[in-house]
Write a structure and sequence with these properties.
- Helix content is 32%, strand content 20%.
- With 200 residues, it is an alpha+beta fold.
- The two termini are 31 Å apart.
């Protein structure tokens, strides 16, 4: 089984929610994927190197997928010439125009030279269907169980079923915990490290 888009989840969700329209199930799947990655920070991307401009405090966070299909949830790590920078030295700031995120260094920590390497955690934009296959397949059960919990716990719908919703809620929590641990394991020996969120 290979999942290429969020739409590919439908055959694995619809049988559990009889009577739920396809479009509504897909809407909830997209919301659930956003919820899952928001909670786990599991969709990571290392951005292209940024050459420091002396005295410049802010730098755009951009890549091929950011803006079109994803937004930055958090800055996970920042290296300056391969040395980690403490997370208190910078912040993630919104922008009014694309690219919609930037890193801003505090006055006492503005770098004057060197190369920045930045790793971010992403979440899909609302209603997007374009999440890399790698993450859709690795976290298939997390997205599926989150969507089923959300759908089955909706009262006043013909597919509402609280016992099943509770079962999928517990499964979703297990998948989130597993994703966080997997995320730490995959990144602890990676080339980029920093003072990111401590999950363990």
């Amino acid at each position: 089984m290979v999942i290429n888009t969020i739409s590919d989840f439908l055959p694995f969700v619809l049988p559990e929610v009889p009577g739920c329209p396809n479009d509504y199930a897909l809407f909830q799947l997209k919301n659930s994927a956003r919820q899952f990655f928001d909670e786990t920070w599991a969709w990571r991307q290392v951005l292209d190197d940024i050459d420091v401009v002396p005295g410049q405090a802010s730098y755009d966070l951009d890549s091929g997928i950011i803006n079109d299909a994803a937004e930055v949830r958090v800055i996970c790590a920042v290296l300056l010439d391969n040395q980690p920078i403490d997370l208190r030295a910078y912040s993630l700031e919104p922008k009014a125009s694309a690219p919609f995120h930037q890193i801003t260094f505090s006055d006492r920590h503005i770098p004057q030279s060197g190369t920045l390497k930045i790793e971010v955690a992403l979440v899909p934009r609302p209603n997007t269907d374009a999440i890399p296959d790698e993450f859709l397949n690795r976290y298939f059960e997390g997205i599926r169980t989150t969507a089923l919990y959300n759908l089955l716990s909706m009262p006043n719908n013909k597919w509402y079923h609280q016992p099943s919703a509770e079962r999928y809620r517990k499964a979703s929590v297990r998948e989130e915990v597993a994703a966080r641990r997997d995320n730490v394991t995959r990144h602890k020996d990676a080339s980029i490290r920093g003072s990111g969120r401590d999950w363990i």
